[in-house]
Specification:
This protein has helices at 2-17, 22-72, 100-105, 110-121, 140-146, 203-206, 214-227, 244-250, 272-276, 283-296, 303-306, 313-319; strands at residues 162-166, 181-185, 196-197, 254-255, 265-266, 323-324. The protein is mainly alpha-helical and 326 residues long. The chain has 5 domains: 54-80; 86-156, Photosystem II 12 kDa extrinsic protein (DNA polymerase, domain 1, Orthogonal Bundle); 158-187, no CATH class; 188-261, Photosystem II 12 kDa extrinsic protein (DNA polymerase, domain 1, Orthogonal Bundle); 264-326. The strands form 3 sheets. Strands 1-2 form a two-stranded parallel ribbon. A two-stranded parallel ribbon has the order 3-4.
């Protein structure tokens, strides 16, 4: 009895749940049609798109393969034309300057033309026609075929000039009209009996002295500036490189005027660096001068330096010309 009651209740509930009105049945039917239409449309649409994508991928792969093939063929052309035949034109050429396309038009394989360009880019140069044989991959047949057409331009060499040193007395009898001849007048030298004041002379004046050229003339002027002037011709021996032998040759042509105007050092005002920059004052001497100034306030004359062990009698005899105690 219990089972029968439960079965009856289940049938009632089942029928209530799955019973639809006429309008509900029409709505369900329309919904099923729409779903079916969407499924069918999706099937055909995506299938077409998939085929199109696959076709594009294949085309891209073909294009990439063609690009690679064109690259490894040595860039034969700007478009992919594997069966394209190149017209060979034999004409004179300079392998140091012509471009890639010219080499190809001469009948060389693209990779050989590329090797030539690489050789030049690395600094390689063809000095004569036989140097063209060095190119890797170039066959003997190609070399023999192209050799008659190789024309290497030679670089323009600077005109060689001949320098002739003359004096005014003979300058008129030389062939001045001759090309590529450079005439340079010889520096006039003074003769014995003529002297030059080495405190007033510039480099041009000093070069007039026999055995003195541009180098020693410049060294003498520079050393004179460091000293503040020469008080004796003997001081020229202190110039770098001027040995006693050269000094004996040039001394007769040099003099120093009376009362030369020296560039004196202000010993009571100059800094340590200024003092030690003078050729006759070293670092320790400059330092003791600074210390003496601190103790005494002012150095009045050179005799006060004579009390310092850092200065010898010879030092003081040289410095007396270059110190100012004002």
């Amino acid at each position: 009895m219990l089972i029968y009651c439960l079965k009856s209740n289940f049938n009632v509930v089942w029928k209530d749940f799955f019973s639809f009105t006429k309008q509900e049945c029409q709505g369900i039917l329309l919904l099923l049609v729409l779903v079916a239409g969407i499924c069918i449309g999706k099937f055909f649409f995506f299938k077409k798109e998939s085929v199109s994508d696959e076709k594009n991928i294949v085309q891209e792969q073909v294009f990439e393969n063609r690009k690679e093939e064109k690259y490894f063929r040595g860039k034969e052309s700007f478009s992919y034309q594997p069966n394209n035949e190149i017209t060979i034109i034999l004409k004179p050429f300079d392998p140091n300057s012509v471009d890639y396309s010219t080499f190809v038009s001469l009948g060389l394989k693209p990779y050989i033309a590329q090797n030539i360009i690489k050789y030049r880019n690395k600094g390689g140069k063809f000095k004569n026609s036989n140097d063209f044989r060095k190119i890797y991959g170039l066959s003997n047949d190609d070399f023999k075929r192209l050799k008659p057409y190789i024309e290497i331009k030679t670089e323009e060499q600077p005109i060689q000039t001949q320098q002739i040193v003359i004096n005014d007395s003979i300058s008129k009898i030389l062939p001045l009209q001759e090309e590529n001849i450079q005439i340079v007048k010889k520096q006039e030298k003074i003769t014995l009996g003529t002297v030059i004041d080495i405190n007033l002379a510039d480099t041009a004046d000093l070069k007039k002295i026999p055995f003195i050229g541009s180098v020693f003339a410049l060294r003498i002027v520079k050393y004179r500036r460091l000293l503040g002037g020469f008080y004796s011709v003997e001081q020229l021996k202190e110039v770098h490189g001027l040995d006693n032998e050269l000094f004996l040759k040039i001394a007769p042509y040099m003099t120093i005027s009376e009362n030369p105007d020296f560039q004196a050092i202000a010993i009571n005002q100059s800094s340590l660096d200024k003092l030690k920059s003078h050729p006759y004052i070293n670092f320790y001497q400059a330092k003791v001068i600074i210390e003496l100034r601190k103790k005494k306030g002012k150095i009045r004359d050179i005799s006060e330096l004579a009390l310092l062990e850092e200065f010898s009698e010879n030092d003081l005899n040289r410095l007396v010309y270059y110190l100012s105690f004002e």
